[in-house]
């Protein structure tokens, strides 16, 4: 996730009145409520936490640790109720969460891992009812006495990607203590997500009005992105996603960063500028937006940074490739767009869309159809547990809201670029051409950033 903020010493968040039972939704939650209740579809938007444990796992202690996390964070026990004036959220009792245990040890060894993936994929494509729940599911799969896979699946209306790091950090404290028969040493949470929701409902709207006007002007007349080689757009989103990955070698990454410094920018800005040029070539349009995720206003407060909840936001960064600029000029325009957008990043994306008054189409995401997700540094495993080796257990992405999502992540052998796409709209060959063309375009851009875009796209 791209972020550019400091955790500030803002005034402490006011907690909600103690008599409130039904709490308002935050604007970000309201957006997900609308998406989940107004559009057809057979699965819910989810965030997943999946780990593989090699070694002697104490399954009982692990279950109690997961229960403790759910009991600590009210949002993980929350359901949503439709009222005449709109939906509200209601926190349930602190009863933990039922953990499903699936024993695969009777299967032949060579079949267990594939069966585990099938079982997890099936559970990640379920539709979760916001009103009846449950909205949090956990499973523990036993592949061998010393080999377990655990997953927690959470409806996106409850949590964002940063919340998974919060959960991991707490489990790293809770599990060892519970396994050793000790009392975990975790500080009490001073506020809950419901307090944040209530505070947003009574907040001063002057800054919101300023941000809303900025986005209304910035995105006025924005046309959707349509790739020339795309299949006919389906009436509604519903096709599974697929992905393919490439690795940019360290020398190319070094040259990208060198170009960024010369332009007083960042690697993110160079990569985003190049993606705009790539999609310009693929669409024939010089004016469209690419979305990026940002951490959101709540994560800037120390007391909220420790919460599970939905804080992340999205920004639409409109590219300007008019007049056949050089890549250096595109980069300068991108830098200015990014800096201006971050100055207005707190207005929830749903409110931006509402300000644009863009008609909703079940087959197309509003505002932008492509996203770019960039990580500045290599992310090490967030979870370490004594006596266990914690590994990833990668799963595919079952469905994407946008047509194309491009991830850039540093790794041990370079910068990984992963293209995740909607198979109902894009073919493997089309996306493979984009992925290969992206690398060629970057090489040409760092080789001669003063080449005009019309020359650069010949490399794609």
Automatic annotation (TrEMBL):
Cellular component, GO, one term: enterobactin synthetase complex
TM spans (from-to): none
CDD domains (UniProt xref): LCL_NRPS-like (cd19531)
Residues of the Condensation domain: 22-456
Pfam family, one: Condensation
GO molecular function, one term: 2,3-dihydroxybenzoate-serine ligase activity
Gene Ontology terms describing biological process: amino acid activation for nonribosomal peptide biosynthetic process; enterobactin biosynthetic process; lipid biosynthetic process
InterPro entries: CAT-like_dom_sf, Condensation_dom
UniProt xrefs under SUPFAM superfamilies: CoA-dependent acyltransferases (SSF52777)
Name recorded for this polypeptide: Condensation domain-containing protein
Organism: Catellatospora citrea
